[in-house]
Automatic annotation (TrEMBL), chain A:
Subcellular compartments: Cell membrane; Membrane
UniProt keyword Thylakoid, yes or no: no
One Pfam family here: ABC-3
Main location: membrane
GO BP terms: response to zinc ion; transmembrane transport
Protein name, as recorded: Zinc ABC transporter permease
Keywords: Membrane, Transmembrane, Transmembrane helix, Transport
Protein species of origin: Gandjariella thermophila
Annotated GO CC locations: ATP-binding cassette (ABC) transporter complex
SUPFAM superfamilies linked to this entry: ABC transporter involved in vitamin B12 uptake, BtuC
């Protein structure tokens, strides 16, 4: 039975990848809706620095990943207005953070005798085929927790994102939700970094969500679609990468995501043009 | 609930009772004051709105009308005096208040339908997501959907409620937001400039609808406005804020030369044009009762071609 799913490394990748993609799809929908995609991007830089800092101090890279992304997510919320980090705050923080990452990378490769020279590359581009069974299990568990957290706050968060003043007057804890969401974004970024790498996290967060929002204007359907698309694109990417030699999984996953988004964009443009010319014919 | 007349149908204005009435107040301010950023906006404001009363809050820009609404919602603490709302401290019964904040357009890229925004007014504060499931849930969902469709029809927004709200015109968005404020059958409606960005026929229609909601359904309605004219036929009371103080009373008591002169401390005249519109002349600020924002928009220039 399990043999059907290929060798263990592929099974681990599928297990972790599915849960991570679902979490990224759910979180990404709200990032796009709240115009906070830039926040996800900034946190991926933080993820790079956090992982290398942990390695430099001889810790598990994941400890640094989660501590850095969640910590900085909350910090950005606190500096920004009402639990929403604003562009200036992000812009000022993240270039500095990236510089720190380079510093830690140098520190790690020059001081640790056991240093893995490719650590920087691994963090930047992900290593989903390199996960052990235990690592995949932990990654999947954390991602499932992120999914459950997102589903729990989805409706009030939607209210707060669309109509902040009314939601606040109605007693929705707008500020707290903003922080809660940023924590989930942080955790999700840390997770996704393990799968597709710090440089490419943004694609997994933004592409399926953007696609879903173009396919439907019903918010909860779009949320489900975003998660579904992310999972499907993850599977497609893992499958392609396994089947075609020399195709890195992060590349294949993001190629699938970008391709679907582009297809939906083109289809939408064609439909718009047709609709317009039909309208033209009527009037 | 009594079936409501649609917005497009004419609603006869009922004879306004004397105001303030002696009924149990839904909103009650006694000697209230508001301070924002270390500055006292208004003080010694006494105000009482009973169930089923329709009251307009008027005054020039920056005088603290929106702050008064926020004080009633409990979003802004009163600096002095006593404020009671729906029998308790402000903020305690906000689930029974329909609130329309001052105009904020939705981002043009917001890809959420108008119905979804109205629906959030009904159950947006609940945790979790709406789950398709058991028969009981299905019945509740159908009831919710029916209520949302009903209020959208009431404000005459059915034709565009299923389009993304970011792509709607300002007036269309405004009507959907009025539906959102009404959807929970609130006991109190607080509307901050709901007539803003509506054309003249629609201002009249929304004013008639709100008058009906107040007088036929017993909902207390407080509305911030810059132009009192579309509302005059339906109003029970007026709160006129200026110079850090308030005059309250029936429209006749407040919107007249002597009352406004006392408020401003300088001679003010209220003129009545041949078509029954009121114009305040001589106020130190720009003419406050008649649309100071829309002064560039001649009243005859927009026809109701919608
Ligand atoms: N958060 C705030 N911090 C500092 N000052 C504020 C704040 N909110 C409002 N103000 C000030 O309080 C005053 C009253 O504001 P408010 O919004 O209540 O006016 P308004 O009567 O509703 O005016 P408008 O007709 O323009 O809507 C303004 O001068 C404004 O600058
Ligand atoms: Mg205001």
């Amino acid at each position: 039975m399990t043999a059907l799913l290929g060798p263990p490394f592929l099974q681990h990748a599928l297990l972790a990848g599915t849960a991570i993609a679902a979490a990224a799809g759910l979180v990404g929908y709200f990032l796009v809706l709240r115009a906070q995609v830039f926040t996800g991007d900034a946190l991926s830089h933080v993820a790079f620095t956090g992982a290398l800092a942990a390695l430099a101090f001889g810790l598990d890279a994941r400890v640094g990943l989660f501590a850095a992304t969640i910590g900085i997510a909350v910090l950005m919320g606190a500096l920004g207005r009402r639990g929403r980090a604003d562009d200036v705050v992000i812009g000022s923080v993240f270039a500095w953070i990236l510089g720190m990452g380079v510093f830690f990378l140098t520190l790690y490769t020059t001081t640790r005798s056991t240093a893995n020279g490719a650590a920087g590359v691994t963090v930047l581009f992900g290593s989903i085929f390199g996960l052990s069974g235990a690592q995949a299990g932990v990654a999947a568990a954390v991602a499932v927790a992120v999914c459950l957290g997102m589903l729990l706050i989805a409706r009030p968060l939607l209210f707060a994102s669309v109509d902040e003043a009314v939601a606040a007057a109605r007693g929705v804890p707008v500020r707290l939700l903003g922080y809660g969401f940023l924590v989930l974004v942080g955790a999700c970024t840390a997770e996704a970094t393990q799968a597709v790498g710090a440089l490419l996290v943004l694609g997994l967060l933004a592409a399926p969500a953007g696609t879903a929002q173009r396919l439907t204007h019903r918010p909860f359907l779009a949320l489900a679609l975003s998660a579904g698309l992310a999972v499907a694109e993850m599977w497609a990417g893992l499958g392609l990468s396994y089947a075609i030699p020399h195709t890195p999984p992060s590349f294949a996953i993001l190629a699938a995501a970008a391709l679907v988004y582009a297809a939906v964009l083109v289809a939408g443009a064609v439909r718009d043009r047709r609709g317009r010319s039909r309208q033209h014919a009527v009037t | 609930m009594t079936p409501l007349t649609r917005l497009d149908d004419a609603v006869q204005p009922s004879a306004p009772p004397a105001w303030p009435s002696t009924g149990d107040p839904v909103v009650c301010l006694r000697g209230a004051a508001a301070r924002v950023g270390g500055r006292t906006l208004w003080r010694d404001v006494d105000l009482s709105v009973a169930a089923g009363e329709f009251v307009a809050v008027l005054g020039p820009n920056g005088v603290g009308k929106s702050t008064l609404v926020k004080t009633i919602l409990g979003l802004q603490p009163a600096a002095a005096g006593e404020v009671r709302v729906l029998g308790g401290r402000p903020g305690r019964a906000n689930h029974r208040i329909g609130y329309l904040p001052q105009r904020r357009g939705f981002d043009a890229t917001l890809r959420i339908r108008g119905v979804d925004v109205v629906r959030l007014g009904l159950d947006g504060d609940r945790w979790g997501i709406p789950l398709p499931g058991s028969a009981r849930f299905a019945r509740r969902r159908r009831a919710a959907e029916a209520r949302v469709a009903e209020v959208i029809d009431l404000v005459g927004a059915t034709g565009y409620a299923h389009r993304p709200i970011g792509q709607l015109s300002g007036g269309e968005q405004q009507r959907l937001l009025i539906a959102q404020a009404l959807v929970r059958r609130p006991a109190l409606l607080l509307l901050d400039e709901p007539l803003d960005s509506l054309d003249l026929p629609n201002q009249g229609a929304v004013a008639a609808l709100l008058g009906h909601v107040a007088h036929a359904e017993g909902v207390s309605v407080m509305i911030v406005a810059h132009d009192v004219n579309p509302l005059l036929a339906y109003l029970d009371g007026v709160v006129y804020l200026a110079h850090g103080a308030a005059v309250t009373g029936t429209p006749d008591e407040v919107i007249n030369g002597p009352a406004l002169s006392r408020l401003y401390g300088s001679p003010v005249e209220v003129l009545c044009t041949s078509d029954g519109r009121l114009v305040v002349v001589g106020a130190p600020e720009p003419p406050a009762v008649h649309a100071d924002r829309h002064a560039d928009r001649p009243s005859g220039a927009r026809d109701g071609s919608r």
